[in-house]
Amino acid sequence: MKIRKNIAISENGFIFNPLTGDSFSINETGVAILQQLKDGVKSEDIVIFMMNEYEIDKHSAEKDLTDYLSMLKSYQLTENE
Amino acid sequence: MKPHYESPFIQKLNAGMLNKFGSRTEYIPVKHIDNVPVAELMDTFGSPLFVISEKTIRQTYQKALKTFKMRYPKVQFAWSYKTNYLDAVCRVFHQEGSWAEVVSRFEYEKAIHNGVPGNLIVFNGPDKSKEDLKLAVANGSLIHIDHFDELYMLIELMEQIKDKTARVAIRVNMDTGVYPQWDRFGFNYESGQAYNAITKIIAQEKLQLEGLHCHIGTYMLTANAYAVAARKLCELAASFQNATGNSIKYLDMGGGFCSSNTLKGSYLQGIDIVPTFDDYAEAITNTILQFGFKPNELPLLILETGRALIDNAGYVLGTVLATKRLSNNRRATISDIGVNILFTSFWYNHRISPAQDFTHHAEETALYGPLCMNIDCLRESIVLPLLKKGDHIVVHEVGAYNMTQWMQFITLRPNVVMIDMNGKPHLIRKSETLDTIVENEIVPEHLL
Ligand SMILES: Cc1ncc(COP(=O)(O)O)c(C=O)c1O
Hints:
By secondary structure, chain A is of the alpha+beta class.
């Protein structure tokens, strides 16, 4: 899944979507994952990234990532591939 | 060390709603109850778990008693058994000086079992058998007659009992300006039914009318309704005095004071709108004091307060079983606290706190129980910090009606502990097991 190119992410967790005019707040984990997505990292690798960065097991990481990606999609922050 | 993990989270910011959704919630984690760590309680006694604070019961009781005694010389509480009849709870109230108020043979026997002298038991309710009445007469209990069938049954019974009188009161229902009017219990005031019942009792040698009783409703949001009710009972007492020359010994105003829970559908928080003990006390005692009883004939004021005395002393602790997304992407959180053990979630939007630290992100979620039933919803919508499987939650103000109205349905009822005045938890009701349930079942031989 890819993040739209024109989405602005601030370091303290605010996102602005110029397409819809919506703004969002995300937490630290959310920012980190969004950055990975921007860099084009694949989902499987983001799970590994999460396990390296945080104290979390594979299943929980996968579950949380799936949930997060579904929210990004519902907010139209992602691009159709 | 790796940084503390929090699930990735995104929340849309809506103009004007920043406070409600984007930023910090008003909640602080509740990690202790009476200084006992919540996590420790759950480790020891399991989840879900009911917790009762003995200290809170005593403090609330003493505050209520003081509020009334400051204004009126003769006040007596009678603990409403149906509100919470766990023995340990009842005994705290009895130690504080409460009589017992019961509405069935089962509750009556429980009061006796808890050491309450028979003459300090108020026996209410529409369901008293001849045998029940016989027992109550023998023990000198206060029989609050609910309907004419009961009155006539008692009259017949007394013909067979020698050397005893029955101490009775009638329950009176009335218009107090509050809708809906509770008119299914007792004798109606406005229609003259109540006075007819009194006349009938006066004519009975072996029936002694000691009191007048009402219970005008529950969770009464207007204290003034009690002023109206007290006034009407005073009028009846005066009529009785005119007819007999005797005074009524007590007026029992029943229960019905609000706890600070928030009713479902109420926009305002309960704590901001419910009358205080002072408001109720002022309404009731002013009315009686100003009615014009002679000082030596002031009736004893009995109160059967239930929920307002116990709700805030009860908590239920639970564990998050799962989180998921509903079809519209709303968050849903499933905990192990179901409506089967938390009956009051049908009436109240209970306050719920996380039991561990959390970050400033909060999310609107539906909060469901563990039952495989659509009705099993504790809160249709609540803003909570990000919760994950295994996290603990604390539901507040659940002391009234849950530990009596809970159902053994789908799952078993959990442990109940009471934290004593020194902060020591005691198991006061063991969780049920399969045996608890099948013990009362009998399988016919051909199915064995
Ligand atoms: C006769 C009677 N007294 C007292 C109570 C206690 O009421 P509450 O919990 O509203 O104070 C009840 C409850 O229904 C009742 O029926």
